[in-house]
Amino acid sequence: MSQLNKDILFLLFEELQSDSKSLFSCLLVNKLWCETAIPILWRNPWSYDINYMNKNYLFAIITFYLPIDIKKFLISQGINFPPISYQSLLFDYLSFCRSINVNIIDDIISFGSSLTHNQFYLQQEFYNILITSCTELKYLDMRLINHQIFYFPKAKARLETLYELKCDTSVGPTYFYGLARICKNVQKLIIINDTMKVNHGIAKLIEIQENLKIFEWKDDFEGEYFEYFIEDPYEEALLALEKKADNLDYLKINFEYVEDYEYTILDQVLPKLYKLKTLIIIDDFTYFINNQLTYQYIEVLHIDFITINTASYIIENSGGHLKEILLFKSYDYFYEENFNKDSLNFIHKIGEHCPSIEYLTLAFSPTKEHFTEFEKLLKVCQKLKSLLLIIFNIDASETTEKIMENGAELLKALIRSAPTNLREIKFFEHFKFSLQALEEFLIQWRGRPALSILTTDNIYRGEDYMKLINEYKNDGVIKDFRFVSRREMY
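^ that's the sequence the OP posted. Answer follows.
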C-alpha cells in the first residue's frame, strides 16, 4: 500500500512540476512526501520563479559534489565554501537533475567570489560536476557560456541524450561546429539572435539534427541598427530548417530585420514545412504573411500581421484540427479593400473547418449578416473557451449610441448561442456595452461557468460599472474583469 501511495503521490506531484510554491510545501508534510517531491523539484531546479542570486543553499549543494583536491585549489584562490560542503546530504540531488542553465548557475556562483577569474574557475568546475552527475541530460540553456563543455569528461554521453537546447548567436561559430559533432538528437532548438554578425555555426547545428521537431528563433538586438548586417541573417538557418520538414511540427519565429518586404527567404521556406502543427510568427518587422499556405495538421495558428483572405485560405485548407487561431495583432483593416465581405467569409470558414477550435480571434463589421454568421459559428464550435473580438465598422463613423447598440447585439448573440465551454471574452474599445445591456447579459449568464472579461476600454472603470461588476463577481457570475493593454490581449 505504501508503494501504491508513493506512486499516486508522484503522479500528483508531476502535475505540480511548474508550481514551485506547492512543491516546496510538499517537502514539509512528511518523509514520504519529501522523498517523492525531491526528484521532481531537482529535475530542472533552475526553472522556478525565484531569485537564484539569494539561494546560497544551491551553491552549497553543488559544491558538496566537488572533489576535495578541487576544493582545496579553489580555496587557495580565495573562493569561499559554506560548511555544508563538508557534511553529508539527505539526497543525491544532482542524480535527479536533467538540466543545466548557464545563466542561473553563473548567478549562483557569485556566492563563492566576486572576482571574475575566480568565477571563471567555478564555472568550469560546476559545469563539469553537473555533466558528470546528471545521469541523463535533457535540457541545456547555454546562453553566454564561456567554456567548451563538449570537451569535458562524459560530455559526449550526456550531450547525445539532449532533448532541448537553448543558445545565443554571440557564441562563436566554431563552438557550434564542436557541439554539432556530438548533439545530433536535439528535438527542441531555441535560438536567441543577439548579434548583427551572421553565425554560420547555427545552420550547421540545425543541419546535423536527425529528429528536430520544435524550432524557435527570437531576435534580441537591444537597440543595434539593422544596417550593420552585411548578409541575410536568416537565410542559412532557414534553408537548413527546410531540410527538416519531414519532422518539424512546431515553428515560432520573431524576426526584427527584413531587407526586402516583397520577398524574403521565409516565403520560400514556409510552404515546404508541410507537417507543421504550430505556426507562430511574432510581428516586429511588419512582414505580411500573404502566401497560400497549406498545413493539413495545423493546430495552432498565431500570426500577427496577416490578411484576412490569407488566414481564410489557411483555415480552409487545414485538416480540421485547429484549436487556436490568434491573428491580427498588428493589422490595420484599412488595408482591406473588401473588409466586410472578407471578414464574413473568414467567420464562415472557421465555422465550416474548425469544429475543435478553443481559442479564437475574430475581426468583423457590426452588420446583421456578420452577427448571423457569428451565431452559426458559436453553435458549431462547442469547444470554444476563449474569444477575442475585434469589431470595427470601416464604412462609417458611428455615434456612441450606435456603438452601444452593436455591443448589445453582440451580448444577445452570446446569450443565445455561446457554447458552455466559453470561459473568457476579450474585446477592444471599438464597441461598448451600456450599463443596462451589460446587466441584462450578466443576469442571463447566471448559472453558467464564471466568466473572465478583459477589455482595453476605460469606460468600465466608471463608478456605476464597477459597482455592477463587483456585484456579479460576488455572485460568482464574473470570475475576473480586467483592464489590459492591447499587447496583453494576445
